[in-house]
Amino acid sequence: MGGTFDPIHVGHLVTAEEALHQFALDEVVFVPTGRPWMKEHDVVASAEHRYAMTAIGIEPEPRFHVSRLEVDRGGASYTVDTLRELHDVEPEHDLTFIVGGDMASSLPSWREPEALLELARVAVAEREEHRRQEIAERLDGLGGADERVVFFTMPRLDISSSDIRRRIAERRPIRWLVPGEVCDEIERRGLYGAATGKALA
After folding, report:
1. What pLDDT score was predicted for residue 76?
2. How does DSSP assign 101-121, residue by residue?
3. What pTM was computed for the model?
4. At CA 156, angle to CA 153 and CA 161, rounded to 5?
5. For domain 2-193, which CATH number applies: 3.90.180.10, 3.40.50.10490, 3.40.50.1820, 3.40.50.620?
6. Domain residue ranges of the chain, discontinuous segments joined by +
7. What is the model's pLDDT at position 34?
8. What pLDDT is recorded for position 27?
């Protein structure tokens, strides 16, 4: 499961948990982007801070892991490169790439989308049937999409990293929107304009 995780929040964790359960996955590996090419101007926290928050946020779930692969690679982060690297390290594993519906819709514009579909099944978190149809239509004509793109349902959680950053800047509470330890880390580091020494609860 890739993402900027700027910061990681409960929506990310619920998505990962639902995919783990619904597809009987062995584990979910969170891969914070080093420099996301699609959000290059929107990222606020450094890659190291985002990696640290992700590691802290997933720590209670033993089947969740975090990878430094994109953080250490440097340069722009492309999913197909990450999947190739993961496949080269452990070719015996079947990979599932977990993604939200909005991101799945943009898949044709990604680098080597058909190669990506050869490397991994794409599991799309989307609960609304009409949205699933829209996404399928957007991916129509992409080699392998019919067989390699699958959908799963998750509870509706209207939470976004950008909204959490906005709330912090406005001195509004974020407790329960992110794991408690992540909330503490944001406050301790003064990330996103948080006032150090002032609890974000």
Report:
1. 83
2. HHHHHTGGGSSSHHHHHHHEE
3. 0.92
4. 110
5. 3.40.50.620
6. 2-193
7. 86
8. 97
